[in-house]
């Protein structure tokens, strides 16, 4: 009797030990996200607004009278763009992709520009479309159409003129793809899934979750994971979170392993004829900036030039990370260049508006690549398959890669705040690149500023806040 009891107890103990070990291994393998910031805690100075932290000016911003000598190299846009295309071709991007992207970029803006917009200025996709994307191989624009809805509308003579997609049938470089679900259906179901997952967050310890997106190519909600799942893990997800035919599981690391990315060292293209302006200090997108209040480790990158609509004050956008606040001094090196006027951290946006001092010029070059001052709107938002470029202070090079998902939700809360509507790319960046410029070279428009990435390895994806959302939240426009 004693032997049987002892054997049963021993077996139970072994099971418990194995379960603990398995749990520890699962926790250790869970992906970690990084804001590319520092470890210090934010000082108490925020107000809660709609689930996000909003930081505003504390004091009147003073203008510095200092004079700094700075040499600025300017290259023509054609030189840098030609070099960028050359680097992309060398990395494996096809000439067909590049040609089609240049040919069809206007079609996308035309299609989305015909639609009604919401309070964010975003096109409201009609029920007959599952969204649009850029074909990953050919670069063609793909407009997805819900077969059943399109047929119903097309058979109704009174509604035929409302089907704007029909104008794109037969255009060179445009593909019409029939799908099962509308983008609205996918987005509504995905938002419900995110709410459920947030409520049952402790259960995610046992799941290698890396966020969610909407895969417009496959017409499905994508649950991103860091490895292939077992049948038991898939069953676990369906039982505890959601079982829907709309959901697929995508191995993000597998996507990263098949990516085509690269970089361009703009300094190698520099002009020897530098113009020196002894009265102004010029700062460029991607230059390193820091916040003295937060210590020497609080390094960011400058994003892009804007003006505030309420008073036409000129400055630039960088990342906020929930730690910048109104009144913070901002330096480039040891020199003060401006003051944080407003910062937002939550929902769609991680960004801050910095008003520059009177003697500071924010350049619209990288240097070399002359950026368009066109205001980014919902009609030219980044799409799945788009080629983008990122430049940050730590990396110091013009990186390029593709959009994995343009409607990305982070896997967990950051400082208690949920983020959605971000853009996930296959570009690997580094700490210190945060706030750096993200640029869509085929559209010649600013796409946003870098928010962060995963800390896994040199093969980790990055994500950013969109410029059109930043403009809406901070009340600024490109300048």
Question: Could you explain how this protein is built, in words?
Answer:
With 479 residues, this protein is an alpha+beta fold. The protein has three domains: 51-76 and 260-478, Thrombin, subunit H, CATH 2.40.10.120; 94-179, no CATH class; 184-257, 2-Layer Sandwich (GMP Synthetase, Chain A, domain 3), CATH 3.30.300. It has helices at residues 2-29, 77-91, 95-113, 147-154, 183-199, 231-240, 252-257, 467-474; strands at 33-34, 47-49, 52-56, 70-72, 129-134, 141-146, 174-179, 209-215, 220-225, 247-251, 262-264, 275-277, 281-283, 288-290, 299-301, 304-308, 314-318, 329-332, 335-346, 349-356, 360-362, 387-391, 398-408, 422-425, 437-440, 445-454, 462-466, 476-478. Strand 14 (288-290) and strand 15 (299-301) form a beta hairpin. Mean pLDDT is 77; it is low at 1-34, 36-52, 54-76, 157-162 and 270-279.
Number of strands: 28
Judged by helices, strands and strand pairing, the structural class is alpha+beta
Our count of domains comes out at 3
The span between the termini is 85 Å
What is the CATH class of the largest domain?
Answer: Mainly Beta
Hey, roughly how much beta strand do the residues contain?
Answer: 25-35%
Estimate the global geometry from the Cα principal axes: globular
Characterize the main sheet: 8 strands, antiparallel
Kindly report the CATH topology of the largest domain. Thrombin, subunit H
Short description:
The chain is of the alpha+beta class and 479 residues long. It has helices spanning 2-29, 77-91, 95-113, 147-154, 183-199, 231-240, 252-257, 467-474; strands at 33-34, 47-49, 52-56, 70-72, 129-134, 141-146, 174-179, 209-215, 220-225, 247-251, 262-264, 275-277, 281-283, 288-290, 299-301, 304-308, 314-318, 329-332, 335-346, 349-356, 360-362, 387-391, 398-408, 422-425, 437-440, 445-454, 462-466, 476-478.
